[in-house]
Amino acid sequence: MQIPPSVIVNADDIGLRPSVNKAILYSYQQGCINSTSFLTNMDCFDETIDFIHSNPAIINIGLHGNFAEGKPVSNFKYPEFLDADGNWNLSKTGKITQLLSKDIKAAFAAELNAQMEKALGAKINITHVDSHLHLHTLPSFYSMYIDLAKRHKLKLRLAQTYREGSYPKFLYRKFLNSKIKANHIAHSDYFETVDKFLSFGDQHPAGKTEIMVHPDFDADGKIFDHVDGTSMEYWVAYLRG
Questions:
Q1: Which residues touch 111 (CB under 8 Å, ≥6 apart)?
Q2: pLDDT, tens digit, for every residue of 174-203?
Q3: Domains plus CATH for the chain?
Q4: Contact (Cβ atoms closer than 8 angstroms) between residue 57 and residue 25
Q5: Mean pLDDT of 134-140
Q6: Sign of the CA dihedral 142, 14, 78, 134?
Q7: Nearest CA-CA partner of 34 in 9, 13, 15
Q8: Which of 11, 45, 107, 112 has a CA 20 to 30 Å removed from the CA of 23?
Q9: Mind telling me which Pfam families this protein's record contains (predicted)?
Q10: Strand-strand pairing, 209-213 and 190-192
């Protein structure tokens, strides 16, 4: 298999659970992916660190900033964004549309920085930044991701670059991407799903394209995409011609 040189194929969610880690390594070994993003706040962090250091095939590792799942790694003092067990409450963090107070925004920024420092402290060479469930594209969060990427001289994932759904959402994503590009930290020229990328056939616009997949193994040991079920299958079929 040969990934086109203009394509970044990022496997989100290394660190989510052991089966995902193994599926991501397998995908590297098979030539299906050339990048991944690390969830540093999940329970299998230590196991994942050993796994990464033991497998040099795992390269181009990004921070998968996470305000959506698992527990904060910092001393986060705003329980209204957490559930009863102290985990991130996605029904709250994933729907933040109002402006956060200065103190709350600072707490989220400190948490994002703590997640980065946790990876760096474990000798992981972080090359880019994105987020779990795209929360870095929310109005209250995007500036802290831009600041983090600039501070560490890293690239940041764009918001979706094609129109799907409402026109106001498309315009907002264009606005956000203009901010990222103006800071010279864009990880690519386009950010798309596998389906969208394949829909262009041989007519994809010139430039660097990032697509995301979410490898895992099912109960029968078959690799699949644990978010949409089919992206890995379609991507592998494309690479095999």
A1: 67, 72, 73, 74, 76
A2: 999 999 999 999 999 999 999 999 999 999
A3: 7-240 (3.20.20.370)
A4: yes
A5: 96
A6: positive
A7: 9
A8: 112
A9: YdjC
A10: parallel
Give the Cα separation of 116 and 110 in Å (integer).
10
118's tokens: 């946790």
Task: Report the C-alpha gap between 234 and 132 in whole angstroms.
Answer: 22
Percent of the chain with pLDDT over 90: 96
Q: What are the DSSP E strand ranges found in the chain? A: 7-14, 35-38, 61-65, 126-131, 155-156, 190-192, 209-213, 215-217, 223-225
Closest to 193 in 3D by CA, of 5, 9, 13, 4: 9
Task: Retrieve residue 2's tokens.
Answer: 């040969």
Among candidates 159, 152, 147, 108, which has minimal Cα distance to 128?
A: 152
Q: What whole-number distance in Å separates Cα of residue 188 and Cα of residue 88?
A: 29
CA–centroid distance for 54 within its chain: 22
Residue 241 has pLDDT above 90, yes or no: no
Of the candidates 61, 57, 48, 54, the one whose C-alpha atom is nearest the C-alpha of residue 16 is 48
Q: How many CB atoms lie within 10 A of CB 103?
A: 9
Return the closest-CA partner of residue 157 out of 14, 35, 17: 35
